[in-house]
Amino acid sequence: MQHIPDVTGESDEKLIVLIDEFLAARAIRKPSAHTLAAYRRDLTSIARLLADGDLTPGGAAPLPLATLPISAVTARSLRAAFAHFAAPRAAASVYRAWSTWNSFFAFLVADGRVPGNPMSAVDKPRVPTPTPKPLRGEETPEKLLEAVAEASDGRQRHPWPERDLVVLALALCAGLRLAELLDLRVGSVVGRDGERRVEVLGKGGRPRSVPIEPELDALIERYLESRRHRFGARTVSRESALLVDRFSAPLRRGGLQYLVESCYRRAGIVDRVPAGAQLHALRHTFATRLAEDGASASEIMRLLGHATLTTSQNYIDVTAGQQRAAIKANRTNRALARLAVGDAG
Per the record, which residues fall in region Disordered (predicted)? Predict the structure, then answer.
């Protein structure tokens, strides 16, 4: 029988202090502020449940979270805490929390702070590979870009089509995530003419370089010129955020989400955006079109910064399924089906 280690021993190091050390170590990888906040939320949510002490029959007395020692965290208490945590939450949220705690204990084991990782004793939910959610409609991406490129239709208080178009194009033509867009600097666009690329710090701190075509490069330069005209040349340094709001402050998560949603409304394509996708629908459209044009799973993996080939292969599998469905719906095939039935008779 496999031995599952508990976090035992005489250590009285405080759990909350070790969590802070783990997050500080993770910060070296330069994850987005959103990712770091999610790590902290997952760790402290479970830590509070562990401090309650009454999740199992005969549980220990509650302790203030600040005084909870790591030695009090056992495989049994973790199982109870995760069971309580999972009840009101989706499987994906529980899986993410499990992964965060697994990484946390791996850090502690490597640092010699605990003798083993107890997370193998805690069940984690199976999370199906997410289905790609590209924009619906063959010409929808082009319709979106054309609508946003036009002058204001009168409904915008502070129109800035050059900026809005660059946001959409970086997601549609380079596959950038929301956090990656927010992290871009003016100096992230590098390379000689004809070899331009955008340097991205991706999910999990993984850097990647995405080639950009001259058309996208020209859009970026036109946007930067409009920004110089609005706020002055000094506001466009290599170190400054690439995407800014109407006050020249770096765009934030909520502002970027609102910008994309307003672009959908202006283009009249809200009904073609999969539920819950929003900006990610643009990235999924980029990946789906790569697959449709014959890109391999490894090429998609490199361009989109996926952690595994499985995620990238999913776009190819979905595209193949869509192609087969389209062939099946072809009128000629339906006629063949009727002939086959007639022949069988």
Answer: 118-140
CATH number of the domain encompassing residue 267: 1.10.443.10
| Predicted local distance difference test score (pLDDT) of residue 344 | 46
Give the three-class secondary structure for 13.
coil
Give the angle 285-163-201 at the CA atoms, nearest 5°: 60
The reply to whether 74 and 152 lie within a common domain is no
CATH number reported for the structural domain that contains residue 79 in this entry: 1.10.150.130
Residue 297 pLDDT: 86
Catalytic residue among 133, 163, 227, 280: 280
Residue 158 a catalytic site member: no
**pLDDT digits over 269-284, tens only?**
999 999 888 899 999 9
Per cent of the chain over pLDDT 70 is 84
167's CB contacts (< 8 A; 6+ apart) are 181, 243, 256, 259, 260, 263
- Annotated catalytic residue 283: yes
pLDDT in the model for residue 225: 96
Strand residue runs (E) in 89-206: 189-190, 197-201
Band of the pLDDT at 4, cuts 50, 70, 90? very low
Q: Which of 113, 185, 203, 222 is catalytic?
A: 203
Q: For this structure, is 315 an active site residue?
A: yes
Known active-site residue 328: no
Mean pLDDT of 128-152: 86
Residue that terminates a domain, selected from 60, 87, 121: 121
Split into its structural domains, the chain has a count of 2
Residue 3 annotated among the catalytic residues of the structure: no
Same domain? For 174 and 312 the reply is: yes
Residue range(s) defining the domain that contains residue 162: 140-329
